[in-house]
Amino acid sequence: MQDNFLLVFSVATLAMLMLAGSIVVFVVFYQRRMLQEQFKRQSMEFDHQQKMMQAELESQESERRRLAADLHDSIGGMLSTIRVGITTMAKSLPNPQAIDETKQMLDDTISSVRRISRDLMPSTLEKFGLMYAIKELCERFQQTSKIPVHFTSNSEIPKLDSQRELMIFRIAQELLNNAIKHSQASAINVSTHITATLALCVEDDGIGFDAEFHKSDAAGNKGLGLYNIENRARLLGGELKFERKAKGSKTTLVAPITHEVQTQKQLAE
Amino acid sequence: MSLEVIFTFFYVQTFLSALIAGFAFYNYRRRDRLMVLVGLLFTFSFLLNVAQLVAYKFGQNVLMNRIGGLYDCVFLVMAGIMFDHATQKKFRTPIAIVTGFFLLLWVFNMLILQKTAVTSITKLACDIIVVVYCVSFFYRLMVELPAVHLHRLTMFWVASGFLLYAAGTIFLFAFTEYVINQLADKFALLWTLNLTLFILQQLFIVVAVINDVKKLGESKAQIH
To answer: pTM, whole model, 2 decimals?
Structure first.
């Protein structure tokens, strides 16, 4: 009787302990599995978002390309033909200097069309690569704004995937545009730093700006440029850092040279 | 099973209680409320163990049982507050009702049913209630699915320790009277099981408090 009791007691206690242990183990495994599924779902959503963003930016780029081609080949071509016509007409006029002003305006229009076309689709980027394209961009901005724009680089930027190059270029373009338009700066520094990653830094000595405010709804659609910059940085798998300094502001983009590495990192996060 | 073995287990248990209380109160201003409750519970556990030892030295066996009974009351109230805190007050009313009924049972048991004996009835009730609390807590964990891994949750370790101890001692307390009356020579053996499971529970809670201290270090590193 006593032995029987002890046996039943031991078995019952052991069973209870095993039951309690299995509840704990079950909860642990269940949570782990659920987290894995949640992670999978999140990465699928992330992929989807990335693709949507990429499609949006690609469509923007293709529209720009089409516009650039139309401006350059069609309007630019026609304006050049008009200019030749005017020059020919001028020769038959008694006072050819009378239309010099018109010719000058036409020349200015032709240059504007070329500049807009180049801004829309930078041929330097395709022909000479990212570093020269950014350098040329700085020179162009300096010419038009009369604000000194210095460019420095610690080394040659390696050849990247053309889409990635275009995205970095667009970011540089937008940042420079913002600095010139809004910062009231007297000088702008653009630098690239190549290590395992590519760092692009645009720094000005102007009034500085609050990135959070411009990104918020309070700024209305003024934040569209920043929104595009952030989308591009995200697609690059990079990080953007906005710093407000005592005098001016500094924006740094750090992006991996290749895409795969960072995408995996972002998914893991 | 000799008395010395039981005392060895008892000393280990007392030491672990002090250790847990020490870890739980370390830097207590920056700790979660749960840790303060764990600290209080094990400070009580330590003090009551010391009191039981003193009572034993003076041959006050009834007093020893009373002190053991007092721990049940303190434990269940504290456990109720801990689970209330861990479930973000979602079960406050049922926890309060259960605690109220338990306190009535505890008083009734101490005054009438088991005035001098081991308070096995309240211990059994305590075990059943704690099993229900723990299972409810684990159910909430499964439903709410915290983003962090469970092993990083302090309350997960605390609840696991409580559950293992409560589940393991249910039959022991259900048959305490029978064992004392019919199997007096086996009582020491069975009581060692109680102490062993209590130590197992404490080890889980040691993991919980150490984890919590580590988290404190991590948040310090983030601040600096």
So the answer is: 0.66
